[in-house]
Write a structure and sequence with these properties.
10 Kd Chaperonin, Protein Cpn10, Chain O
């Protein structure tokens, strides 16, 4: 299924965290925190401004972004977990 977000929304796939600690202890799934970084899969057409124009988004497909712990809406597309965020929920873009 193809999914195109509207306006200033973006679809991301969370980057899974480490499964072992620095000391080699395996972390169970119940103790893991949700990761705060994700790869951007799709972006909407732009943010709708008060005057009716569209402002292009800073985020683009392929970027790695950081966002707040409780930001976004969890969805399943083709059986895989994804998150829909507004561009305002993105804290920053990770650059190499």
């Amino acid at each position: 299924m193809n999914f195109k977000p509207l306006y200033d929304r973006i679809v991301v796939k969370r980057i899974e965290g480490e499964t072992t600690s620095a000391g080699g202890i395996i972390i169970p799934d119940s103790a893991k925190e949700k990761p705060f970084s994700a790869n951007v899969l799709a972006v909407g057409g732009g943010k709708l401004m008060d005057d009716g124009s569209l402002r292009t988004l800073e985020v683009k497909a392929g970027d790695t972004v950081l966002f707040g712990k409780y930001a976004g809406t969890e969805i399943k597309i083709d059986g895989e977990e994804h998150t829909i965020l507004r561009e305002d929920d993105v804290l920053g873009i990770v650059e190499d």
